[in-house]
Structures are given as C-alpha cells and as structure tokens.
Design goal:
Blueprint: H1 3-9, H2 14-40, H3 42-65, H4 75-103, H5 105-112, H6 115-126, H7 133-151, H8 157-160, H9 162-174
Helix pairs in contact: 2-3, 2-4, 3-4, 4-5
Length: 175
C-alpha cells in the first residue's frame, strides 16, 4: 500500500459524513428560519436574508469573475438573471418561510424535497426532455419513498392545522 492509500483510508466515509452533515444543517436552518419567522414575520426574514446574502454573492462573483456585478453580461442575460432572482430568491423563499409558519418546518421540508421529481415532470411535458431509464427509475423510487413517508400521517391537514387552514381560507376570500 502506498502512503496515499493509507491516508485516504482514514477518510473512507467522507461522502456519507458530508451527506449527514448537509441533512443536519438543512434541518437546523429550517428550524432557525421558523423561529425567526415567528418573531418578525416571513417577509421580514426573507428581506433580511437577502440583504445578508447579497454581499456574499457579490464577493463570490468578484473572486470568480473579477467584478462585483456582471456588467459584462448581455441584456438578455440580465433579464433572465433578474427573473430567476425574483422567483428563486424572493417569491419561492418567501413562500417557503411562510409554509414553515403555517404547516411547520417538518412538513415544509418534506414538500420541498419533491422539487427534483416535479422539475423532471415539468421538463418532460413542457420542454420535451428525455431521461435515461436509470434516472427515471431513481426518480420513481425516490417519489414512492416520499409518498410512503407522507402516507404515514393518518390525519388530513385540516385536522392537523385547523387555524392555519381557516386563516388561508380567509386570506383567499379577501383577495
């Protein structure tokens, strides 16, 4: 055995550790965002998060591209980046933080985990994207596991969260 193999033998489970650490940090962040949302509201939390993230994103762009804002990008690129940012950074995260307050971080993150299969379905029907059979079977397996997990909850959402459902109904009626 070479020294490289011995050295790497110590870190044989580095991928598994990274996956567990990522899951733990996602769980911790959802709990923190929920507590912050309960104190100041989901909109305020989202705006504060954006104000904290902007300098970090600008620093990353400066390190990788040498400029704080992508001034070298075309008008089309700016348009698509703006639309993506409005939906991805603002609207979707605002709805995620609101869901943490209405249905809790556990169910909110469980629903968020449906993003990959939903993206694949949208890509299939709207963009006519094709997947290899192996990828399709992996998505089906993950979705079935997800359905099995959520199917264990025997109560309907109305039974679990009556005040939140009523509040959502009143909000919809006001609109």
């Amino acid at each position: 055995m070479s020294n490289y193999q011995l050295h790497m033998g110590k870190f044989i489970y580095i991928g598994e550790f990274a996956a567990l650490a990522t899951a733990f940090l996602w769980m911790l962040s959802s709990l923190c965002w929920t507590v912050a949302g309960e104190r100041v509201g989901s909109l305020a939390v989202n705006v504060m998060r954006l104000l904290m993230a902007l300098p970090m994103l600008m620093l990353c762009l400066w390190i990788t591209e040498g400029e704080l804002l992508p001034f070298s990008a075309s008008v089309d690129a700016w348009f698509y980046l703006s639309i993506s940012g409005i939906f991805g950074f603002f609207i979707c995260d605002l709805l995620l933080f609101r869901s943490f307050l209405l249905i809790g971080p556990r169910l909110g993150m469980l629903i968020l985990s449906l993003t990959p299969p939903m993206t694949a379905l949208i890509g299939r029907f709207l963009l006519d994207e094709r997947r290899k059979r192996r990828k399709g079977s992996q998505i089906r397996t993950g979705t079935l596991r997800h359905a099995r997990l959520t199917g264990r909850c025997s109560k309907r959402p109305q039974d679990l969260f009556p005040q939140q459902i009523d509040q959502m109904s009143l909000t919809a009626q006001e609109i």
